[in-house]
């Protein structure tokens, strides 16, 4: 009986613990890490540059932008793939220089597609000469 209670408790912890995580620490600028269904990244470029590079990347990848909004504090771009998956990219300025961004594809996340989108954003930031 005790073993059964322990097994149930471990199962509950195993299901709940992954949902309680915070954004992972990113070691260096212009790097990204995938965790919890999202790709988290930082850029040394300002938020406006990252926003423009994001829109260009989505266009290059033939993803249909359905929402876009930006102000001095936050930017958000939502797109849809041909398969109907929703792609959400949130961009925030960092204190000082740079910006942080998160990329989520679909309901549960998709690492490969998130990484491809992020690589295109980085290429656009590099090619913009900033």
Question: Any overview of this molecule?
Answer:
35% of the residues lie in helices and 29% in strands. By secondary structure, it is an alpha+beta fold. It has a single domain (22-127), classed as Kinase associated domain 1, KA1 (TATA-Binding Protein), CATH 3.30.310. The chain has a six-stranded antiparallel sheet with strand order 1-2-6-5-4-3, with helices on one face. Helix 2 crosses helix 3. The longest helix is centred in the C-terminal third of the chain and has 17 residues, at 111-127.
The helical percent reads 25-40%
> Any idea what the CATH superfamily is called?
Kinase associated domain 1, KA1
Number of domains: 1
Total strands: the figure is 6
Q: Any idea what the CATH architecture is?
A: 2-Layer Sandwich
Attribute tags:
single chain, 130 residues, alpha+beta, TATA-Binding Protein, six-stranded antiparallel β-sheet, 29% strand
Quick rundown:
With 130 residues, this protein is of the alpha+beta class. It has three helices and six strands. Strand 5 and strand 6 (99-105) form a beta hairpin.
List the helices and strands and how they pair.
Layout: H1 2-16, E1 32-35, E2 38-43, H2 47-60, E3 64-70, E4 75-80, E5 86-93, E6 99-105, H3 111-127
Antiparallel strand pairs: 1-2, 2-6, 3-4, 4-5, 5-6
Helix pairs in contact: 2-3
